[in-house]
Each structure stands twice: as C-alpha cells, then as structure tokens.
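It is worth pausing here to work through a concrete case rather than discussing structure prediction in the abstract. The textbook approach is simple: state the sequence, then state the predicted structure, then interpret. We follow exactly that order.
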Amino acid sequence: MAITPPQNMPQDIEDTLRKRLANELNAMVSDLYEIGLSAVNAIRQNHAYKDQTGNLTSSVGCAVVVEGEIMQISDFESIKPTGAQGSQDGKAYIQSLASQFPTGITLIVVAGMNYAAYVERRGIGGMTGGELFAKQAVEDLLLELQGK
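Step two, the predicted structure:
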C-alpha cells in the first residue's frame, strides 16, 4: 500500500501523514486480529467431532496479512500433548496462504489439518460458524469505519 507524497511537501507534514497512516494501519490490523481470535475460539469450542489426538483443534488459527506479509499470527496452541502436529501444520498452512495475498489487508482463519474439509463437510467441524462470525464482524468493522 504505497502512498507517494507530492515532491514539494514539507518534511514535517509528510512525517505526520506517514505516522497517521501507520497508526491507522496498526489499528486495523489489531481489530482484524481480535476478530480472528474470536473466530478461532468459536471454532475450537463449538465443534462436534470427538477430539482424539487434538491435532485438528490445534491446527485452528488466524493471521492478519498486509501486502503479503504476516503482521500478526495466533499461537496455534496445542490443546493436547498429541496435538503438536496440528499446531505445526496449521502454522505452516497459514504461512503458505499469506503469499497469495500480495496486496491489501487480509484476515485468514484456517484449520490446517488435511482432513479438516472432510470433517467440516460432515457438519461437525465448527468452521462454518467461525467463518460466519468473522464475516459479520469484519462487515460491522468496515461499516463503523465508514461512519454508518
């Protein structure tokens, strides 16, 4: 998100504008991250599958990406000692997705195990509810920014 100031702009005005833009960007990243964490918590708490290894639940996490760079990423906390693989897979998956968003600001929420889609298709994964929550929360945030 490159913004080039006019060539004749005084340095102090340029510095002030850059600082304001950076503050706004940081606020947006923080707000999106909080929405992502809420979605992650909803998914982790509202699934209907039997969590035998903890891998699927541990693979659920989020990140906020700006211009293809991860600005904030959840910890992918392993919920069981046997869930470490899920944590690793979730983090690796979200890092691989970040490069697919080279422009703008993006909130990514994932379940990183390769069988997550299968579990979700069976209606027991909880991802859909987390996704709906995140979409509505982001929409509300954008409306708030527009002053509506």
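Step three, interpretation. Residues 35-141 form one domain. The chain has five helices and three strands.
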